[in-house]
From TrEMBL:
Gene3D superfamilies: 3.60.21.10. Residues 7-187 form the Calcineurin-like phosphoesterase domain. InterPro entries: Calcineurin-like_PHP, CNP_phosphodiesterase-III, Metallo-depent_PP-like. Belongs to the cyclic nucleotide phosphodiesterase class-III family. Keywords: Hydrolase, Iron, Metal-binding. It comes from the Bacteria. It holds the Pfam family Metallophos. One of its GO terms (molecular function) is metal ion binding. This is Icc protein.
Amino acid sequence: MEGIVAKIAQISDCHFSAITKPKFVTGCTAVLEDIAENPVDLLVVSGDIADDGCVEAYREIAELVQRILPSTPVVWVPGNHDDPDVMERELKQPLVREWQFPGWKLAFLNSAVPRKVWGRIGKPQLSSFGQWLSTTADHVGVFVHHPPLPVGTAWIDPQRLRDADELAEILSAHAQVKWLANGHVHQEKQDIFAGVDWYCTPATSRQFMAGAQDFALDKSLRPGYRRFSLHANGSYDTAVHRVGVID
C-alpha cells in the first residue's frame, strides 16, 4: 500500500522455559513463520518471553527467532515472568527504549516489577518518557507489557499497571502518540486509554478466556500476534492474525 513507511509485528507471552511445553514452541513457531511470509521491518516481543526467567528459555527463543527471521531486527520488552538481567545477557541486547522510522518513533516501556505479577513503570522512567515526548514531533507508538486498564477478566484485572494514571497524564498531553499496545492478558482487545488507541495482543502460547472470573483457558482460539503498518501521514493499520493449531 502506498505511503507505508514501516511494518511491525508484535508477539507476546511466549512463556518459554528450561523445558518449554511443546505446544508453546509450536505456537510461537507458527506465528514466526506467518510473519516470515509477509516480512516486517521490526519484531517486538512484548514480555513474558520466558516463563521463569531461566537462561535456557532465552537461548531457545533467540535461536528460534534467528532461524525463522534471520534478518529482522528485534526489540525485547520484559514482562513479569522475565528476569531482565538474564534476558539482556542471553539475548545480547540491552533494553531498547526507542526505535525510529521516517516520521515515526516507537517507545518501549519496562513495566516489570521483580517478584510481582502486576506492573509499574515507575517515576524515573515516566519522567524520561515525558521528556522524550516533548522533544519529538514525530508520530509515536508505545509498547509495554502490562495493560493500563481492566480488560473485564476479573482475575487478570488486578495485574494491570499500578501507575496508569500517571501514564495517562503524559499521554493526554502529547497528541502525537497514536497507540499503546500491551501483552500480558493473553487475549485480544481494543479500546481507548487517555485519548490514545489501546490494544491488547494475544499470546503465542495459550489464550485466556475473556470475561472469566477465575483462571480459564479459551481452547477455541489459536495462537495470535498483531501487525502494524505505519503510514507517512501519521495514520496506521493494525490487525490480529491467528495461526497454528488450537490449544
